[in-house]
Amino acid sequence: MAGVLSGPAPAFKPVAKLNTVVFSKVLDRDPEQMDSLMTAIQTVGFFYLDLSDKYSEGMLKNLEQCSSVMKDWFSEPIDVKSEYKTVSMASHGYKPIGSQAGTHGGRDGWEVLKTGTLEIASRWGLIPPVEKHYEAFSTFQRQCDYVSRMLLDRISHGLGLGAESSLNRTHRGDCPSKSAVAYLHYIPMDHSGENVGHNMHTDYGTLTLVFTPQWGLQVLYPAGPRGEDREWQWVEPRPNCAIVNVADVLYFLTGRRVISAVHRVLPLPDKDRYSVTYFLRPSDDTLMPDAEGNTTNVMEWYTKKNNNYEAPAHTQDKSFLIGGLYKDGFGGIEETAAGINVMNRTKR
């Protein structure tokens, strides 16, 4: 039974204090920006990426155009949108509302259209509006890929990884991957609790770029005097900034030296919410140690985690949903109609 939501709309407090990394400066490995980047990924797993430089203007303009086109498309009837259901391990195509577990025991309250990096480059399986505005959509996707790969390279450098262990080796441009842009639409809060938000999870790729002008995103933030506790905090949307979070594959490939941040999305009380996300994912043939320490192929990890996303809430493996972080002393996480409480906290 889904939990019933009641009471006034939540105030957006507390707000997570996240580092801001200036992209134009981290490109040059500016020491201050590199320190801000490395601190963020090793303590919270989230940071702001400032894209207000002159060179990023084109990317933000393409984002605005693509967002407008997709907002119109989401208003189409469900039978029109359902002609383009997801394929390729759910990395390309349309996912309707209610196909995954939501935040309060019911089903989810969001729909998404994904454009896979290989698919859009090949102009394969595109919805008509994307085909019509192909230049904006394809250019924006390439720009997201460039930004993500530059961040990955700087992270690899910051961790002291040499040529043989560089993270670039597992993200080759000449090999297929499940990297994709996701255009998301969240319906307003359903007070019955049947279709609510996006359940707590970690992302199963490498790095995620999130673009949103609206509140709704929450991160499980380190709290307490030494950061030994965790609590849900709101991530403030900022103009000309992407919100970046570390995902599972980067966590495992670096020997757990970074934080794959647990996060969720709550619906707004009286309006629709829209966001655009880019998922950088490794080459399909990448091997990595999983949560149990066993070597696995990233495709196996994707399959298991995607199947878990789509399972009913009462059958989900919550530990797997958040990347196996239970096994690292994260404690138990209980979801209630009032929210998610972090219990049995232990030091990381």
UniProtKB/TrEMBL annotation:
Pfam families for this protein: 2OG-FeII_Oxy
Keywords assigned: Iron, Metal-binding, Oxidoreductase
Molecular function GO terms recorded: metal ion binding; oxidoreductase activity
InterPro entries in alphabetical order: IPNS-like_FE2OG_OXY, IPNS-like_sf, Iron_ascorbate_oxido_reductase, Oxoglu/Fe-dep_dioxygenase_dom
Record carries keyword Iron: yes
Keyword S-adenosyl-L-methionine: no
Domain Fe2OG dioxygenase: 178-282
SUPFAM superfamilies found in the cross-reference section: Clavaminate synthase-like
PANTHER family noted in UniProt: 2-OXOGLUTARATE (2OG) AND FE(II)-DEPENDENT OXYGENASE SUPERFAMILY PROTEIN-RELATED (PTHR47990)
UniProt record similarity statement: Belongs to the iron/ascorbate-dependent oxidoreductase family.
The protein's name in its UniProt record: Fe2OG dioxygenase domain-containing protein
Species whose genome carries this gene: Xylaria hypoxylon
